[in-house]
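Recap for those who missed Tuesday's class. We walked through two folding examples back to back. For each one, the amino acid string is listed first and its predicted structure tokens come directly after. Nothing is annotated here on purpose, so try labeling regions yourself before you check the end of the notes.
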Amino acid sequence: MSNFVPVMKHQTKEMTERIRRQLRLLTVILTLCSTTVLAACGSSDDPTGQDGKGKVAKIVSRGTLLVGTTGDYRPLSFRESDGTYWGFGIEVAGEIAGSLGVKPAFVQTSWPTLTADVMAEPQTFDMAIGGITITDARQQVMLMSEGYLANGKTILCRATESSRYQSLSDLDRPEVTVMVNPGGLNEKFANENLTHATIVVHQKNEEIPTLIAEGKADVMITEITEAPYYVQADPRLAAPLLSQPFTHGQIGVLMQKGQDDLMQAVNAVIRKMKSDGTLRRLHEKYGLVYAY
């Protein structure tokens, strides 16, 4: 009998944890099915994973939502030297994880490897977040959520030269050195639109504003989401075209195709954050323009 009781206690502990996971999954399923956008819950292909095989079910069973992020894009996603992450996108990821009843765990990716990391098999993470613009090219090969942040290309330059740059043509001159981070849409935009300027690719996005301020280059191609942070942090910098971005778009959550149940859950959270004011308050916290 002395060996029987500990076995029963161990089994009871495992059973309790299994029941907790099942209850979390049931809560997620009921939440998803309560929204009209997720009416497919009753379809035969079981998009919410009620059979235990869907993406959401696996995340709930694991107890962790694995989130890929570059960690180099203040104030959306930044990784400190001690490995901790902070930012607007990081908090949105926390809201998504909380809705599933799990904890977020952040996995570092990079702009040049973002697509490959999202599409990797076995998966490196469940979804990616933090300054990822919704584009047709990405939507052709991956899933992207509804937008949760307005975006657009703009520039950073030295405050003493802000009057020099009032249009795209002002940038596209041989005497202008433009700096961009590698592999993302900033580099793509520069290569497509600045055929006369000198384009310099710098590996670390977060270092570029300081390099501009120090005169190592004249202009940084960036986003209206990122520029205000650096202007506020460094009085040597200016964003003269902040209210007149070259492009207009939205930022969303990126993931592999075939994860429709997770995409539905993410969209449900974004819509809830818009309707209950959470998203607006988060914009205000990080000094971002609310466009919803």
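Example two. Treat it independently of the first, because the proteins are unrelated.
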Amino acid sequence: MMNVSRKALLTPIAMLLITAGCASTVEHPIAVKINQDMVLVHGGEYVRGSDESQFAAEKPAKVVTVDSFYISKFEVTQELFNSVMGSSMSFFQDPQVPVNNLSWQHAVYFVEQLNELTGENYRLPTEAEWEYAAKGGHKSLGYTYAGSDNIDEVAWYAGNSNNRAHPVGLKAPNELGLYDMTGNVGEFVIDAFDDTFYRFGPTDNPSNQKDSAVHLAHKSVRGGSFAYEAERSENFRRDFASQSIIMSDMGLRLVKDVD
């Protein structure tokens, strides 16, 4: 009789422990949606920058190596941003349009809140990761823009955008299956902008990440945007913005490390 009673008492406890263990591994619904749209970018090397550029900040061309990472197929939409933050200040309002009209600081704060909510470790890409992915990673075919030599095939830019952001994924993807790496909204990366970094910085997983309380600190922006001409939208092009300035044509894309 005692053995039966003990078994009856232990079974619910064991079941509770098993249930608790399972619950701890369940992905947050927002993370599930993000992760199913992430692409594994196999590490490798590529030629960063261009010696043909007229801007010193975009040269010299150098072989750069990056480790593997995950990157989202799409720019962060207002639907995703609002599911975490409640709302955005986007100038071009639409759930499937990239979140826009935000600063680098807003972008970083969103990622922090997203990670707190989901338990994940999303981040902004480094400039090197971004350019490697835009050029197609290990599948690169050497295109001028992200996925084509014809910018109209892959991008919303000054020549076809009607000066506004558009829903993600309407243009053709690049070799890795990434959409809107060229055009639509510019994408903040984690790096501080330094026009000498290509000349003097490292070439193995280069990152110019710097924490700064100075609101005028410049951060790098990649990919052009709906407001950029074709000749300023090539994969190697760099731009920058103050970390606190709000830009109607700037957004972000999520990256995650490979475990």
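Answers for example two:
The chain has seven helices and ten strands.
Confidence is low (pLDDT under 50) at residues 1-23.
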